Amino acid sequence: MIVQKFGGVAMKDRDSRRLCIAHIKEGLEVHQNVIVVVSAIGRAPDPYSTDCLLKLTDAFSFSKSASDLAVSCGELIASAILSAELEEAGIPNRVLHGIQAGIWTSGDFGDGTISDVDPAMIIDSLKETGCVIIPGFQGINEFGQVMTIGRGGSDLTAIALGSAMRASHVEFFKDVPGIMSADPNQTKSAKKLEQMTIRQLLPLLDTDRPVIQKRAALYAMKKAIPLYVRGIASSEKGTWITP
Ligand SMILES: Nc1ncnc2c1ncn2[C@@H]1O[C@H](COP(=O)(O)OP(=O)(O)O)[C@@H](O)[C@H]1O
Ligand SMILES: N[C@@H](CC(=O)OP(=O)(O)O)C(=O)O
Question: Is the pTM here over 0.95, yes or no?
Answer without folding.
Answer: yes
